[in-house]
């Protein structure tokens, strides 16, 4: 199992990326880790020399504010693009990047390439839930407009991912909607609902936005626009509430004292709401495994992303998805 | 100014509806209040007999779990439908109901009727914001699918409402989107953006879901499906966080003590997040003013809805909207 890591992508690159890779190399001897990036900068960061870590030189870097499509097309020697090419050429089984999300989606599409039969790959992060299990939501921004058949493929791919990578037997797949009744929703969800009923998955019907946090499903299917609105409103509400709480709690010496007593509970809650805790987001529907690690990933987050990639590879995720998608597409 | 109140709609009807109407009658002698409902049940509730309150008999009631379209079509003598007919016939200038939302939207469409030039009326509640001002969001569920021209009309109507009813000069109108740049979004928002720039409103561009609570605009425009997801995820996140906080705060005697100290602050925050505080939601784009009061309205909420209706009527809201919509439509 060879995993290529974009050593230059992310707010804490390349230092944390290298540290995370070194920790992962020590933890799992059955994987080979390929650090893709500027050799001159990476070499001095290798504080140890595990046999299963190798530097692959890439001269340039895609920056956080680069325009995605332009950057991927022009910077052919960027660490992210080189890692993508290694996946396409079979030199790596997976790539991980904490860099520019738009550029990574473009690399997935233009460099790694779509899986046969998949029209639209999906960005599939975990949304935190109150029960701590989280829900895999897709699509959360790779494609703004979706057709019914795209959502059908999201449902299939998400279900397989949860089963293979998270070990959930029969993951509950829900359709994000404005009501629980089958005939609720817009044109898209009304068309998709009966199609999801026909799939070989555990479809639990419509799920309302207010129930997502309560953990009412393991996979949540939606178009990229709505998914993005959902994720950002969850994040925004949590963020706004915490900042007002902070204000209220620092009003006087006795509220400060009381807040100090409650701090462990508040910290638990904040951690529960932190989607960084849930590891990288897979880009599903590509000709290889591509994982997006959070932009502010530290060494532990990178190590976790490697763990996730290793589990996915061990369970032959991509091949399973390809078989299922092939079966569903040809069965039409 | 004659305001018809569906006396039988809402969780606390008819008692609280009557109490609210009596309070409003005392507060404002320049309005006439028409209590529409079962005379035999309403008569005994009239603890005082103000000259500006009158009962209008309606034999039946639309229940919370009635199927909207069927109920409005069949129960022609239901209090909600009778109130709607009074608006259509010019016997009332406005109607207020705390009853079944779907049935009220249907009453608006089928009984009151659409305003000339308006294709899709919009349900326009206030979403609470951290600065306490709130944002009028439309559409939040009247129409699941929207065309660009619908969103253009939502923007116009919402802007006029905020100016006339809430006294905000040049309300800031935002388009709910996945990024702030002009070219972001799905097909719908990309098409709408340049159209909103051409309107005689203060268009502030795209607004992301995470910034809505921070009060970054006064009017938020979106299609009904996305709006519904946004509102429910705001409510759901706030609700889930409060329930986990409660759990954390009652872990032991000392966390309970600390929580008691912080209670006033928490209550302020909870009140800030309570959309009932913001009064009724207008259904905009109809041939008369229709206000949806919250289902759990108490007497004060009904009185507030009457206040809101009175302000709208004083500022000739419906006529202003009709003129603007006419101007924009004919100007094409």
From TrEMBL, chains A, B:
Q: Which gene encodes it?
A: plsX
Location comes to: Cytoplasm
Please give the InterPro entries that the UniProt record associates with this protein.
Answer: FA_synthesis (IPR003664), Phospholipid_synth_PlsX-like (IPR012281)
Q: What is this protein called?
A: Phosphate acyltransferase
Q: Provide this UniProt record's keywords sorted from A to Z.
A: Acyltransferase, Cytoplasm, Lipid biosynthesis, Lipid metabolism, Phospholipid biosynthesis, Phospholipid metabolism, Transferase
Name any one Pfam family assigned in the record.
Answer: FA_synthesis
Q: Name one GO biological process term.
A: fatty acid biosynthetic process
Q: In which pathway does it act?
A: Lipid metabolism; phospholipid metabolism
Give the organism, scientific name: Paenibacillus dendritiformis C454
* HAMAP family (UniProt xref): PlsX
Q: What is its EC number?
A: 2.3.1.274
How it assembles, according to the record, is: Homodimer. Probably interacts with PlsY.
The main location class comes to cytoplasm
Q: What does this protein do?
A: Catalyzes the reversible formation of acyl-phosphate (acyl-PO(4)) from acyl-[acyl-carrier-protein] (acyl-ACP). This enzyme utilizes acyl-ACP as fatty acyl donor, but not acyl-CoA.
Gene Ontology terms for molecular function:
phosphate:acyl-[acyl carrier protein] acyltransferase activity
Question: What is the similarity comment for this entry?
Answer: Belongs to the PlsX family.
Task: Give me the Gene Ontology terms describing cellular component.
Answer: cytoplasm
Catalyses: a fatty acyl-[ACP] + phosphate = an acyl phosphate + holo-[ACP]
């Amino acid at each position: 199992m060879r995993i290529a890591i974009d050593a230059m992508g992310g707010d804490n690159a390349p230092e944390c990326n290298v540290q995370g890779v070194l920790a992962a190399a020590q933890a799992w001897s059955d994987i080979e880790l390929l650090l893709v990036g500027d050799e001159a900068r990476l070499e001095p960061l290798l504080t140890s020399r595990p046999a299963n870590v190798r530097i692959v030189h890439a001269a340039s870097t895609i920056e956080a504010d680069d325009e995605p499509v332009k950057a991927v097309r022009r910077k052919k020697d960027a660490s992210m693009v080189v890692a993508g090419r290694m996946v396409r050429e079979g030199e790596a089984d997976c790539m991980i990047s904490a860099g520019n999300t738009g550029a990574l989606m473009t690399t997935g599409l233009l460099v790694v390439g779509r899986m046969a039969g998949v029209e639209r790959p999906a960005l599939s992060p975990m949304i935190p839930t109150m029960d701590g299990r989280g829900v895999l939501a897709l699509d959360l921004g790779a494609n703004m407009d979706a057709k019914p058949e795209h959502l059908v493929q999201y449902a299939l791919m998400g279900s397989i991912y949860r089963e293979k990578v998270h070990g959930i037997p029969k993951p509950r797949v829900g359709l994000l909607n404005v009501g629980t009744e089958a005939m609720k929703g817009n044109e898209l969800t009304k068309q998709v609902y009966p199609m999801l009923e026909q799939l070989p998955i555990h479809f639990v019907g419509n799920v309302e936005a207010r129930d997502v946090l309560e953990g009412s499903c393991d996979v949540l299917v939606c178009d990229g626009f709505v998914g993005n609105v959902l994720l950002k409103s969850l994040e925004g509400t949590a963020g706004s509430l915490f900042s007002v709480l902070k204000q209220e709690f620092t009003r006087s010496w006795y509220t400060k004292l009381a807040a100090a007593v409650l701090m462990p509970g508040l910290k638990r809650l904040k951690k529960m709401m932190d989607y960084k805790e849930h590891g990288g987001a897979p880009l599903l529907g590509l000709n290889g495994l591509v994982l997006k690690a959070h932009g502010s990933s530290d060494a532990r987050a990178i190590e976790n992303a490697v763990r996730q990639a290793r589990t996915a590879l061990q369970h032959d995720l991509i091949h399973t998805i390809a078989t299922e998608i092939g079966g569903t597409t040809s069965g039409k």
